[in-house]
Design a protein that fits this description.
- The structure is a homodimer of 410-residue chains.
- Chain A is of the alpha+beta class and 410 residues long.
- Helices cover 33% and strands 22% of the residues of chain A.
- The first copy, chain A, has eleven helices and 16 strands.
- Chain A has helices at 3-11, 28-43, 88-103, 130-136, 154-161, 191-195, 233-249, 286-307, 326-338, 354-357, 384-400; strands at residues 47-50, 56-60, 69-75, 111-117, 178-186, 199-205, 207-216, 220-221, 255-257, 261-264, 270-271, 274-283, 310-319, 322-323, 345-348, 363-368.
- In chain A, helix 3 (88-103) crosses helix 11, helix 7 runs antiparallel to helix 8 (286-307) and helix 9 (326-338) crosses helix 11 (384-400).
- Chains A and B meet through strand 8, helix 7, strand 9, strand 11 and strand 12 of A and strand 8, helix 7, strand 9, strand 11 and strand 12 of B.
C-alpha cells in the first residue's frame, strides 16, 4: 500500500463514532483531524495554520515570497458513517503533490496554498460551505445563529473548536492574491469506471433544484370503484414519474430523480387519494435545468388535468451551477493527456466547495474513479494506482501551468 | 325522518368509542347492539336469540311451522370510525320488511330467518366471517386461537361475550332446512349514484387476491449517476403501475389497485434502490382475475428485465369469487322492476358474508345507492327514500318469490 493510502487510513481514524467514520464540522474529531493535517502540511514544507472558520491552510511560497497563490484543496468533514476518500483524498493528494515538488527542488511562478475545508457536507448545521465561503468572502454572519440538532449554535461550536467567529470576515482573500482554485475529488458516480478511465476533468458543478409535488385525487374502496370512475393519485404520480424520466433522458447531462414518495391513506385495499413525491433536478447548465423544469411542470399539469387530480409543485431548494474555468481545466486536461490518459470532461452532479470558491476565482476539478460510483458509505473505494495517477497529474499540472493562462475567468 | 333511519341512528350509538362508531366483534358494544337487535326482532314478531358465535338470529315461521327458511341479513360489527349503514342497514331493513309483512297478515310458503352477523369486517382478529362460517358449517376451530392486538384470543373473547366456543359447530344449518341467503347492503361504490339508480342486484361477490411486489435496483447519488446508467427501482415501479392500470382498464369488471408504496432509502437526493408496492386485484370472474395476474406478472418481468432490476411478486391473500344465484337474483330483479326501477346487475368488489354463505346455499344481494361511493367512514350516507325503496323491494320479493325458484344452485 502506498504512503498516501496509508495516510488516508490514518486520517479516517479521527471519528466522532467508534467503528464508523463520522466527522462533523467543528467536533473534537474534526479538531484532531485538522491538527494532523496541519502537521502533514508542515512536514511537507508549508507554513500552516487552522483559521478562524476551522479550515486548515498551508502555504508554499513560489520562486519569490508573496506571489499570488493557486489554491488547491478539498474538505475533511464527512457525512455520518462515511467513506474515507470523499474530501479527504483531495486534501492529502494536494499535500503529497506539494511535498514531491518541493523534494525535487521545483520552484513555481506562484505560491500554492493547500486548503482543508471543514463544512462541505452540511451534515451538522442547516447551513453549508461555511469554511470556503469565508475564504471566498461570501460568509454571511447571520448563519452563526444556525443550530445543530443538539441545539448548539454555529457561533458556539466555533468557539468550542477554538476558532474565532469574529475573525471570519477577515479570512476573505483579496482577488489579486488568488489565481484559482483546483480540487481533486472522487467522482461519486459510475461514469469513469464505465469508461475505463482513472480520472476526468469536471466541466461544471451542476446546479440543482428540489421540488415537493403533491397530488390530490379521490380515495376509494379498492373493490368497489370501477377503473373508469377512479381519480387515483398514485396512478397519476406513476405517469408523471415516467414523464420526468423521459424528459431527463432527452436532456443531455441533466439528471432527474424521484427519491421519496408517499401514498395516503396507504392501505392495501384503498385507492390512494393523496400522493407526495420529491423531485431533484440537476444540470451543469442552469438554462437546461430550467427548461426541464418547465417541461416537467407542463407534463404534470396535463396528466393531472386528464386524470382529474389536483397538482401542486413547490420548490424547496435551488443552487445555480458553477462553471469550471476553461483555461484552468484545459491546463489540467493537458496534464491528463501527458499522463497518456484520454481526457474526458464530465459534469459534477454533486456539490463541492467550488460552488463557493467560484465567487472568488476561476475553479477547476479533477475527478478520480471510484468503485461502483459509491460514496457517502463505508464501501467507498479507490485504488492506490488511481490515487497515484491523480497525484502525479496534479504535480505535473502545477509544474507546467502558467498563471497567465487563467485570465479567462478573471 | 323515517322510523328505519331513526333506528339506524339508535343502533349507531352502540360504540366502543365516544364520539365515533367503532363496534368490533365480541366487544361490550357489540353485545349491547346484539341485545337491541334481538329486542327489535322480537318486537317484529320473531323468535330471536344470540347464538354461540355471537350472531343474532330471529325466526319468523311460514304458513306452517318448521318449513325450510330463507335467510336474510347482514352484519352489525363495524370497522373503526365507521359509517352507520354498512351492515347495520341490511339487518334493520330485514327486520322492518318482516315486521310489515307480518303486520299485513301475510303468510309465506317458507320460514324467514333474519341474521345479524358479527364478524364481517375482520377488524379485530386476523380471521373473519366467523359468524357466517358457523352457520354455513365451515367454521374452523383452529381459528379460536387467533388473537387480537391486545393479546385476547377469539376463544377468550367469545367466552367474555357470553357465547360458547364449544357450541359453534352445532350452529351449522342443515342444507335441507335452508333455501337461500339474501342480503341488503350499501353499494360502497359510485356506480348506482353515477347511473341515477337507487338499487342494483349483485351478480357476484368479486374474488380477490393481494400481492406484495418488491424490486431491487441500485441506489445511487441523485447528482452523479447519468440517466443511462441508472437502475432506478421507483422508475421501474412507475412503469409497472401504469401497466397494471392498463391491464385492469381492459379487463371489464376487473379492478386493480396499488394502495401502498415505499421507496428506499427514501432520501430526496438518492436514486431508490428498492421499492415495495402492494397490488389488490378483484373480479367477479376468477378466470379473468387469474388472466390479469398472469398478464401483470409478464409485464413486471419484462419491465424489470429491460431496466435491470430484480422483481419478486408474492401472493399474500386470495379468496375466490362467490357467484350469486341466477334464480334468487332474478326474483330480486323482478321485484326491482315491479318498483318501476331499471334492473342493473353489478358485481360487488367488497367482500360480504355471502362469501361464507355460498358454501351452504344460493345467495343474492341487493345494493343500495350510497353518497359518493363512501364507506368505512363517518361520512357514509344513504337517503331515507332509497332506504324505503330497498325495504319495499325486499318485502315485495319475499311476498312473491317461490321456494321452487331457487333450485338452480342446489
Amino acid at each position: 500500500m502506498s504512503a498516501l493510502m496509508e495516510r488516508l487510513d490514518a486520517l479516517a481514524r479521527f471519528s466522532d463514532e467508534e467503528g464508523a467514520l463520522t466527522r462533523l464540522y467543528l467536533t473534537p474529531s474534526h479538531r484532531a483531524a485538522a491538527e494532523a493535517v496541519r502537521g502533514w502540511m508542515e512536514e511537507a514544507g508549508m507554513t500552516a495554520a487552522i483559521d478562524a472558520a476551522g479550515s486548515v491552510a498551508g502555504r508554499w511560497e513560489g520562486r519569490v515570497a508573496g506571489l499570488p497563490a493557486l489554491l488547491v484543496g478539498s474538505h475533511i468533514d464527512t457525512v455520518r458513517d462515511a467513506g474515507r476518500y470523499d474530501g479527504n483524498f483531495g486534501v492529502l493528494a494536494a499535500i503529497e503533490a506539494v511535498r514531491r515538488l518541493r523534494a525535487e527542488g521545483v520552484g513555481l511562478p506562484s505560491a500554492v496554498e493547500v486548503l482543508a475545508f471543514g463544512d462541505e457536507e452540511g451534515a451538522r448545521f442547516p447551513v453549508t460551505l461555511t469554511t470556503s465561503r469565508a475564504i471566498a468572502g461570501t460568509f454571511d454572519p447571520a448563519t452563526l445563529a444556525a443550530v445543530d440538532p443538539a441545539g448548539v449554535s454555529l457561533r458556539e461550536a466555533l468557539a468550542g473548536f477554538g476558532a474565532d467567529p469574529q475573525a471570519i470576515p477577515a479570512l476573505a482573500r483579496r482577488r489579486e492574491a488568488v489565481l484559482g482554485y483546483v480540487e481533486l475529488h472522487i467522482e461519486q458516480g459510475p461514469v469513469l469506471e464505465a469508461e475505463g478511465l482513472p480520472v476526468g476533468v469536471v466541466s461544471a458543478i451542476a446546479g440543482a433544484a428540489r421540488y415537493a409535488i403533491t397530488l390530490h385525487g379521490h380515495a376509494g374502496h379498492a373493490g368497489t370503484v370501477p377503473m373508469a370512475l377512479r381519480r387515483d393519485a398514485l396512478a397519476a404520480a406513476a405517469e408523471m414519474m415516467l414523464a420526468i424520466e423521459r424528459i431527463a433522458r432527452a436532456g443531455g447531462e441533466l439528471v432527474a430523480t424521484v427519491g421519496q414518495i408517499e401514498a395516503r391513506p396507504g392501505a392495501v385495499n384503498v385507492i390512494p387519494g393523496e400522493v407526495r413525491f420529491s423531485l431533484d433536478l440537476r444540470s451543469p447548465s442552469d438554462a437546461a435545468r430550467e427548461a426541464a423544469r418547465a417541461a416537467i411542470a407542463a407534463e404534470i399539469g396535463a396528466i393531472a388535468a386528464r386524470r382529474a387530480v389536483h397538482p401542486a409543485m413547490e420548490r424547496t431548494y435551488e443552487a445555480p451551477a458553477a462553471v469550471c474555468s476553461p483555461a484552468l481545466s484545459g491546463a489540467l486536461e493537458a496534464a491528463v493527456a501527458r499522463a497518456g490518459i484520454r481526457p474526458r470532461r464530465l459534469p459534477s452532479g454533486a456539490g463541492h466547495d467550488g460552488l463557493a470558491m467560484v465567487a472568488l476565482c476561476p475553479i477547476a476539478m479533477l475527478f478520480v474513479r471510484c468503485k461502483g460510483g459509491i460514496s457517502h458509505h463505508p464501501a467507498e473505494s479507490i485504488t492506490a494506482a488511481d490515487a497515484e495517477t491523480a497525484v502525479a497529474i496534479l504535480g505535473d499540472f502545477l509544474r507546467h501551468w502558467s498563471p497567465d493562462e487563467v485570465s479567462d475567468a478573471r
